[in-house]
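Fold this sequence, please.
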Amino acid sequence: MIDGIKTFDLNYPGRIIFGNGSAGRLPDVLPHEGKVMLLSGPNTAKSKAFEETKDILCEFDIADASGMCSPEPSIDIVRDIIAFGRQNKVKSVVAIGGGSAIDAAKAAAGIIPTKNDIADYFKGTVKITGKGLFLAALPTTAGSGAEITPNSVITDPGSKIKKSIRHNLLIPDAAIIDPELTLGTPPHVTACSGLDALVQAIESYTSSSANPVSKPLAKAAVPLILRSIVNACSDGGDLTHRENMAAASLLSALSFSQAGLGAVHGIAHPVGSLLTIPHGMACAILIVPIMKFNSETCSKSYSELAAASGLSPLPEALINKICGIRKKLSIPENFKRFKLDRSHFPFIIRNCRSRSMECNPKHMQDDDVWKILSDLT
């Protein structure tokens, strides 16, 4: 954990509560007026963590939306959640699950009180202009940090475009990060979500928009992940490593929500939506070649992160450590198994020019993206 600190309670703009057993504080932060929509994905809906959360809310009037979300939530899924919330006249939302469930909840909570359709926000023809429903987010994975970020990542299956609806008013009103909720997370999900947090920390540390507030947060996250991710996957019941991963996920999210990310996330979104690759895995495959691309610009930063992690203070030490972790977690080095080919490159290049790409510390031209993708096919 962070210098032995086991629990803390912050005001961010949303309230952040961290610590084992903190899910029990949900009734204290949730408004008691009106119906509460309880939202999750199908796997979380079958979990012990979900049942315990539902039990905690026994005194509330619940509109049960368990299982309604899906991995990489689509426009249609979010539209259905919004319709469910409106039909049940819900006044607040509780999301329990991974980043997908929380992202869907953020969009739904923001849009339910309006008369608008999710597609209009996705296209950008309508903007978030006012506060939505009260939203409490309880992550069951340690990775995306969606519980404290202002963006809701949505996919349009028709166009294969994946992008964020973004506004500070979408930040959950309460983020309850209880490491005990992550104990049932399967090893593969633990690996992908944890590697996403690692990439977020590295990219926010080297972002062109990094600042004196964001950098220490990212620098604290990287050693925690490097120290604990393999053990968290091999022994999912080890609460110490689960605490480290949950804390690192929060720290990386606090960092990148201020500083932005980089080319890994810029490219990972179109690659993931096109080939249906878990986001964390796409990031884990892309991080090494993009770190090598950025290495001349980021040599000092990579050395600082290596030293902070107890490694030799050289950029290569950090890259080699990541390669070793990927191998231990059975993460592929390229996209060959996903059948990435050159016919996909124009779509990826056309749709990677997000804010993340703008924050990459070294400008990446289309030819650079093409070469990186070529090396990974």
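The beta strands are 8-11, 15-18, 35-39, 62-65, 90-97, 134-139, 151-156, 161-166, 174-177. The radius of gyration is 20 Å.
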